[in-house]
Amino acid sequence: MVTAILEQDPEIEVVGLAADPLEARTLIKRLNPDVVTLDVEMPKMDGITFLKNLMRLRPMPVVMISTLTQKGAPTTLEALEVGAVDYVAKPSNQSPGQIEAYGEEIISKVKAAASARVSIARADTPTPRVALESQRWDTRRLIAIGASTGGTEAIRNLLQGISADCPPIVISQHIPLEFSESFANRLDRQCPMKVYHAEDGMPIKPGCAYVAPGSHHLLISGRGDALTCKLSDSEPVNRHRPSVDVMFDSVAEKVGDRAIGVLLTGMGADGARGLLKLKENGSMTYAQDRDSSVVWGMPGAAVSLGATDGVFPLDHMADVLVKAASKK
C-alpha cells in the first residue's frame, strides 16, 4: 500500500521494496535511495535495531511507519532520538477518507525528508550543561516553544539546557494524541524542570513546562501571575491541532511583552505569523537556524516575515533564553 501511494506522485520513484531488514540492507547498498521508509515491526530484526545500524554505518533520511497507539509511542519517540527524520502513523481503519489522508501525509513527509538534515544520535552524547545560575531567572516571564518535524528531539535538547527553576514554558509540537503524553513523560524524565501533559485549567507555574495534547490547541487563560492552560478542540489551523499559531496568538494576547517566543525546526509555516504577532506585542522572538534544523520550513517562514529578534543554532538557544529571561 505504501508503494502504491508513493508512486501516485510523479516526483517520487520507489526504487526498491524490502520484506525485512536483511533484504533492505542489500538494496540500500545497491540502489542508494534518497529516503527510506521503515516499519517499526518487521521479521528477522526490529526496526529500531536496524535504524541504529543504519545511522551508524550509512546515515540517510528515514521516515518511520508507526502504529498509532499509546503502546507504540515510546518506540516511535526512540526512533526519532536515534536519528529518524519523521514518522507516519498507520491508519486505524481502511476507510477511503483515512487512506486518502494517510497518502497525503506520507507523500509530504517523504518529500520533506529528501532535503532534511540527518543528525546522528549517539548514546554517549553528554547531557547539555545547565545554561546559567538559577537566581538570574525572571520567573514572571513565559516561554512559548513551537515545533514540528525534528521537534521532539530539538525540544528535548533545548529543555535539557535550562535549569529546573526556569520561567513557565508552554509547548506546541505537531504530534498525535496517542504520542503526546508519552512525549511529555519522556521530557519529564530527561529534563531538569517538571514537564506536564497539559490539562484544561492546569495552573502555569515556574519550573514547569506544559506540552499540548495532540488533540487540542493549547491557549493561555487568566492574567498576571494567575495563568492557566486552556485547551480547545476547535478546527485545525494550518492543518494542525495543536497549532503553534493558535498558541502564540493566545500568549501574545494574555502575556504581551513578558513573553518569549521560540520557533524550532518544522515543515510548513505554522507559527510564523503567530511569532510576528508576539514580536509586534513587544515579546522577544527567536528562531532556530537553517543548519541545525532538520527542516527549515517554520523558522524560515518566520525569518521571511521579519518575525524574529534573532536566529540561532539549537545548541545556543538555551543561553539565548537565559539572557532574554534574566532579571534586570
UniProtKB/TrEMBL annotation:
Active site feature: S148, H174, D270
Gene Ontology MF terms in the entry: methyltransferase activity; phosphorelay response regulator activity; protein-glutamate methylesterase activity; protein-glutamine glutaminase activity
Catalysed transformations (reactions): L-glutaminyl-[protein] + H2O = L-glutamyl-[protein] + NH4(+); [protein]-L-glutamate 5-O-methyl ester + H2O = L-glutamyl-[protein] + methanol + H(+)
Pfam family membership, one: CheB_methylest
Record bears the keyword Hydrolase: yes
UniProt cross-references to SUPFAM superfamilies, sorted A to Z: CheY-like, Methylesterase CheB, C-terminal domain
Domain CheB-type methylesterase intervals: 136-328
Main location: cytoplasm
One Gene Ontology cellular component: cytoplasm
Highest rank taxon of the organism: Bacteria
Catalytic activity, EC: 3.1.1.61, 3.5.1.44
Residue numbers of 4-aspartylphosphate PTMs: D39
UniProt PTM: Phosphorylated by CheA. Phosphorylation of the N-terminal regulatory domain activates the methylesterase activity.
Location of this chain's protein in the cell: Cytoplasm
Domain named Response regulatory: residues: 1-105
InterPro entries, sorted: CheB-like, CheB_C, CheY-like_superfamily, Sig_transdc_resp-reg_Me-estase, Sig_transdc_resp-reg_receiver
Record key words, sorted: Chemotaxis, Cytoplasm, Hydrolase, Methyltransferase, Phosphoprotein, Transferase
Class of this enzyme: hydrolase
Stored NCBIfam families: PRK00742.1, PRK12555.1
Entry similarity comment: Belongs to the CheB family.
Free-text comment about domains: Contains a C-terminal catalytic domain, and an N-terminal region which modulates catalytic activity.
Function statement: Involved in chemotaxis. Part of a chemotaxis signal transduction system that modulates chemotaxis in response to various stimuli. Catalyzes the demethylation of specific methylglutamate residues introduced into the chemoreceptors (methyl-accepting chemotaxis proteins or MCP) by CheR. Also mediates the irreversible deamidation of specific glutamine residues to glutamic acid.
Protein name as annotated: Protein-glutamate methylesterase/protein-glutamine glutaminase
Organism: Litorivicinus lipolyticus
Source taxonomy: Bacteria, Pseudomonadati, Pseudomonadota, Gammaproteobacteria, Oceanospirillales
